[in-house]
Design a protein that fits this description.
Chain B: This is Peptide/nickel transport system permease protein. The complex is a heterotrimer of chains A (335), B (309) and C (520). With 335 residues, chain A is an all-alpha fold. Chain A is built from 13 helices and no strands. Chain A is flat, with a radius of gyration of 24 Å. In chain C, 28% of the residues lie in helices and 22% in strands. The chains are: A mainly alpha (335), B mainly alpha (309), C alpha+beta (520).
């Protein structure tokens, strides 16, 4: 997968891909050699900056929000059920309305952010770690290791994740940790296949050959040379997967086998609120918006990071904005 | 090509068996389904009769041997719930899902290619930003929410399409639209990304300088080479659709295999579950082989080497 | 201009999707979907949408709601039928019946009745039906639900007379017989039959598995021809989609709607016979102390729940059966909401050494009835306010059943199970035997005195029976306290304006199409 936000006109002498013969180095924002730091690059791109800010906000909410909200999220008030949002008449805590048991929507959204992130982030991280390392190893060594790994990936992909979810959640215990386990397990093949494909392709590249000739051990080659090249693609994939995992969690809630009450997550709120769409739309819409906004922000930031962490591409972000959009029209190129 | 095909089919047989064995074992770990199928005040004797009648008191390996013996005779067991032949139930439900998934993916690919190419022509331009945003938003919406809102708006309020069910062509609109959005969103980003890379390759410049029209440049030259990653992802998404159209099938009353699977899981109908999983797994393996072959057809470098006499 | 690659055939990347598209659209032309148009059924067809597809239409499983709602009194008919409004038993395929001895009943059967396959209905068929359902090895659901372990001795005296002998005196045998749907002697005795033949006003036209069931009226029916010539059943699991089908005119009758489905004036409320209660396991601490169980009862704000969650449509319950059931005690007051009393009872028990901090599991089945999740959370909150340590456990059906019926799950600690009970039969014996006997299938515990009272009531008849069961319910609330009753529920039926039908308490179990007429 080679997605990037760069423009089409490549300046002379430089290719999109890593130029052959040049070993990739671990990137390091370094003021000393004249390259701007990562943070300043971020500020230059308005969309990415906004996305980063949104994600920071979500992260902070998940971290400290529940403590701030106290028991507002669980305080029931049956007489106050399904109150409409956008009015300060009942106090600031009911600004986003109240749910079917009279609890503050604002507080519930805040507390749910922690549960949602604590399910989505570990699931993505675990799958990324295991799938990538395994795939890179398989792609590097090729042969039977690659074949077996691919067949294992096939097995996992065609295994009904629902059955796995029902068994794990009900034979063992329904808990967030088990949901993370299932979501991670079922997504490993994605990273596995992508990492293997990229790693297998890299195996024939000159710089890997060179490292082998110099007597570097396979693991060293993998860690120093292969992984840094493969990493940007995998990170892009991880952010797409982050989005998918959040949606999968809400689908599990819809089917009744996800996060269980009294715990609350955005997915569960969307699922429970769907019964009230016509009478109390805010129960389902606000958590849905939260999911959408978080995933879009993650995608935008990831796309930006993709370029910023690729040493061959970074220069594009340092250009003044107008140059980024320039494109040589076909007609001008003709003699 | 044929030897490759044969090798892939053979090497897919073992994973298939692993999947079925896994489902078999996992399903039986959920306990004895007797309570679901017997009256509430059934006696212990009735429970024991039920357990013996369905072979559930045997050790796991014996049950598995019995099952695979039956499979070799093409007997996949009977549904605990309806008494019908499990394979017949799975085979009846599968085409519905397949049609839904296939139509959705074809539409998604076609639309994504169009939008992705359009966005890639002017990277970071207005069209690009808008399509990026829309595609990201499309990929982030929960499908059951979309389905219910869609029913509310288009079926009830506007009355353009039926709310659910399978009768008539207009009944396909909402389910496909709901399933379409996420693959479309993901594919647009992939196509755009790889088109941007492809359009910056030297051979594009060469084609342009030789006077090729823009459309030919895009479709014939760039798209061919950008198709590969899109194809892989499209394949993965199709697999995901076949396995995961459960939600849409449940809401729209679509008699597909996803709904059959979730129902048989919740009702511990082991034979139907195993038949459904087997059928889906076979389809997925076949799909993967097709994708790899398509990949090879598109990119000469990846083709298995054949020596011509 | 040459192309930049040398494929053996000129397949461009775009041809593949094009080919695939053609193939798929071609496939959809011979689609699995029906090609008849959606919406706007014929004027003589009534379209019903259920919550789930019936697993089977086998007549001897018709006490299962999902089967009975299609089959009972539509395709098949019983010998005796219970009138849901009056509670009286009325003749159907049997015209009279009387107890000729303590354990024997004689029934006179209707003449001139035929089955849908043309064979005549007679005592032999009736005897065959009872034998097949109750005495055989088929394992019919109705056997366990209605008759228990006992076998009946049936004899066809002549073509129109039948005797049924019970092992013990059973005053409510006719009521039990009302659950048996009559089938012809040609019905298989070794296997259950998916599409039965009966004497009812409609015969099964077709069952498109997964999609719909079609019934149509037939000419040889012994009674009045029904107003609708055809009936079609479909199913959707989301109640909001079922409501949407009514609103958009795709269906005429929808079962099991929720108050929030916005059905508006197309919805009809009706008492559906279901009662919700918590069932407490007094074998485990802290629920083994009767004060704790009383505290649970006092802590639940039943009025508040009914008013806020169910828009005041449900009725606060004081016992497990609603009005209209033989044995219902209309004088029973039930537990008022008194949080202070609940707290003081808990404190009292604590002072006496009861470990009130021990966890009580509130076990609830997800999606059992509308708003069960909200109800469960409210209960957990209210019980916690009384000073108890309550943990909510939402489970799916199969898991929930391990807590609901014997043998109960072990090592689970103290359990308060949310249970929903619908007494279809109209007699409290069906409830009490299951839920209150110390060995009852759905009972955690009982006492020997209580068991004796119950046995006596089971054998009584007439006014004595009514009084006996009234006492049982009062005794339960006073001395046993296994239950914390919450409410008698009402159901919502969606009904198009073109259909005239009044639902009653058994509509959920037995939806009689012949009672529906086109609205004028």
């Amino acid at each position: 997968m080679t997605s990037s936000l760069t423009d089409g006109a490549a300046p002379e002498g430089q290719e999109e891909r890593q130029p052959a013969g040049q070993p990739p180095t671990r990137n390091a924002p370094d003021f000393r050699d004249g390259q701007p730091g990562l943070f300043r690059l971020l500020l230059k791109d308005r969309f990415a900056a906004v996305a980063a800010f949104v994600l920071l906000l979500v992260g902070l909410t998940a971290l400290v929000g529940p403590a701030l909200m106290g028991d507002l999220a669980t305080k029931q008030n049956l007489l106050f059920a399904n109150k409409a949002p956008f009015t300060m008449a009942h106090g600031w805590e009911y600004f986003l309305g109240s749910d079917s048991l009279g609890r503050s929507m604002l507080a519930r959204l805040v507390v749910a952010s922690r549960t949602t992130l604590s399910v989505a982030l570990p699931a993505v991280a675990v799958a990324l770690l295991i799938g990538s390392l395994w795939g890179v190893w398989a792609g590097y060594h090729r042969g039977w290791r690659e074949n077996v790994s691919m067949r294992v990936a096939d097995v996992i992909m065609s295994f009904p994740s629902l059955l796995l979810a029902v068994v794990v959640l009900y034979v063992f215990s329904p808990s967030a940790a088990n949901i993370v386990l299932i979501l991670a397990l079922t997504r490993i093949p994605i990273y596995l296949r992508t990492a293997r494909a990229e790693s297998a392709e890299l195996q024939s590249r000159t710089f890997v050959d060179a490292a082998r000739t110099f007597g570097a051990k396979p693991n060293a080659i993998i860690f120093r040379h292969v992984i840094p090249v493969v990493l940007p693609t995998l990170l892009t994939l991880a952010t797409l997967e982050f989005c998918y995992v959040m949606l999968a969690e809400s689908s599990l809630s819809f089917l009744g086998i996800g996060i269980q009450p009294p715990d609350v997550s955005w997915g569960l709120m969307v699922s429970q609120g769907r019964q009230y769409l016509q009478t109390a739309w805010w129960l389902s819409i606000f958590p849905g918006v939260a999911i959408v906004v978080t995933t879009i922000a993650a995608n935008v930031l990831a796309a930006w990071l993709r370029i910023a962490t690729d040493p061959a591409q970074r220069w594009r972000l340092a250009l003044p904005r107008k140059r980024l959009i320039a494109r040589i029209p076909a007609k001008e190129a003709q003699p | 090509m044929l030897t490759y095909l044969r090798k892939r089919i053979i090497s897919s047989a073992l994973p298939l068996v692993v999947v079925v064995v896994g489902v078999f074992a996992l399903a039986r770990m959920t306990g004895n389904p007797a309570s679901l199928y017997l009256p509430l005040n059934a006696t212990q004797q009735m429970r024991d009769d039920f357990t013996a009648r369905n072979g559930l008191d045997q050790p796991l390996l014996v049950q598995m041997a019995d099952y695979f013996g039956g499979v070799l005779r093409l007997d996949f067991g009977q549904s605990l719930r309806t008494g019908q032949d499990a394979a017949a139930m799975a085979l009846r439900a599968f085409p519905a899902t397949l049609q839904l998934a296939a139509t959705t993916m074809v539409l998604a690919v076609v639309l994504a290619v169009i939008v992705g190419c359009w966005a890639a022509l002017k990277p970071n331009g207005v069209a690009d930003r808008i399509s990026s945003f829309i595609s990201m938003a499309a990929a982030s919406i929960p499908d059951f929410w979309l389905a219910i809102v869609g029913i509310w708006i288009f079926a009830i309020t506007l009355g353009w399409v039926p709310t659910s069910g399978v009768s008539g062509a207009s009944a396909w609109v909402l389910p496909i639209a709901t399933l379409l959005l996420r693959p479309f969103g993901v594919l647009v980003q992939i196509v755009r990304g790889s088109m941007v890379s492809a359009l910056s390759e030297p051979y594009i410049k060469l084609a342009r300088s030789r006077g090729a029209g823009e459309l030919r440049v895009v479709t014939h030259h760039a798209l061919r080479n950008a198709a590969a990653p899109a194809l892989t992802v499209a394949g993965d998404l199709t697999v995901g659709l076949v396995n995961g159209a459960v939600v849409v099938e449940t809401i729209f009353g679509w008699p597909g295999i996803g709904k059959l699977m979730i129902d048989s899981i919740l009702q511990r109908d082991f034979a139907v579950l195993q038949a459904a999983v087997l059928l889906t797994a076979v389809a997925i393996f076949a799909l993967n082989i097709l994708i790899d072959m398509g990949y090879a057809l598109l990119d000469a470098r990846v083709r298995p080497v054949t020596v011509k006499a | 201009m040459t192309s930049s690659s040398k494929l053996p055939f000129q397949a461009t990347a775009l041809r593949w999707p094009a080919l695939a598209a053609v193939a798929v659209f071609g496939l959809s032309a011979c689609s699995v979907a029906n090609s008849d148009s959606a919406g706007g059924g014929a004027a003589d067809t009534v379209r019903v949408v259920l919550g789930q597809e019936p697993p089977t239409l086998e007549a001897c499983e018709s006490n299962l709601t999902s089967t009975g709602v299609v089959v009972r009194s539509n395709v098949t008919e019983p010998l005796i039928e219970r009138n849901p409004q009056s509670g009286e038993l009325e003749p159907k395929l049997a015209t009279e019946w009387k107890a000729t001895s303590n354990t024997e009943w004689t029934l006179k059967l209707r003449e001139g009745v035929n089955f849908q396959d043309g064979t005549p209905f007679n005592a032999e068929a009736a005897a065959f039906t009872i034998d097949r359902a109750v005495n055989s090895k088929l394992g019919c659901n109705v056997e366990g639900y209605v008759f228990g372990d006992a076998d009946l001795d049936v004899k066809a005296v002549d073509a129109t007379t039948l005797t049924v002998t019970t092992p013990e005196p059973d005053p409510i045998l006719p009521l039990r017989l009302s659950f048996l749907e009559v089938v012809p002697t040609s019905t298989s005795t070794t296997e259950k039959v998916r599409e039965p033949i009966g004497t009812g006003p409609y015969k099964i036209d077709s069952w498109d598995a997964g999609q719909k069931i079609s019934l149509s009226s037939w000419d040889g029916y012994w009674g009045d021809k029904p107003a609708y010539a055809k009936a079609e059943y479909q199913w959707r699991s989301e109640s909001s989609v079922r409501a949407a089908m009514i609103t958009s005119g795709e269906a005429d009758v929808a079962m099991g709607l929720s108050p929030d489905d916005n059905i508006g004036d197309l919805g009809v409320d009706y008492p559906n016979n279901e009662t919700v209660a918590l069932r407490m396991d007094a074998n485990e601490a802290p629920l083994n102390d009767i004060r704790i169980r009383q505290a649970v009862n006092f802590a639940i704000d039943k009025e508040g729940i009914v008013n806020s969650l169910y828009q005041g449509k449900h009725q606060v319950a004081a016992q497990l059966v609603p009005e209209g059931i033989v044995g219902h005690n209309s004088g029973l007051k039930g537990w008022p909401f008194d949080l202070e009393k609940a707290k003081s009872l808990v404190a009292e028990a604590k002072a006496d050494g009861v470990d009130t901090a021990k966890q009580i599991s509130l076990v609830v089945r997800s999606a059992q009835f509308p708003k069960i999740t909200e109800l469960a959370q409210v209960l957990q909150e209210q019980l916690s306010q009384a000073g108890l340590n309550v943990k909510l456990k939402m489970l799916e059906t199969s898991q929930h059943l391990t807590y609901q019926v014997r043998p109960f799950a072990e090592d689970e600690g103290a359990v308060a199970l949310m249970t929903q009970h619908g007494n279809q039969a109209g007699d409290a014996a069906f409830t009490v035997d299951q839920y209150m006997l110390s060995t009852g299938a759905q009972s955690y515990f009982g006492t020997p005195e209580f068991d004796a009272m119950i046995r006596k009531a089971d054998a009584a008849s007439g006014d004595a029976r009514q009084k006996a069961f009234e006492e049982i319910f009062a005794y339960q609330n006073d001395k046993v306290v296994q239950f914390a009753h919450i409410s008698h529920q009402t159901g919502i039926l969606g009904k198009a304006k073109s259909v005239s039908y009044t639902p009653n308490s058994s509509s959920g179990d037995e939806l009689r199409i012949s009672e529906m007429t086109p609205a004028s």
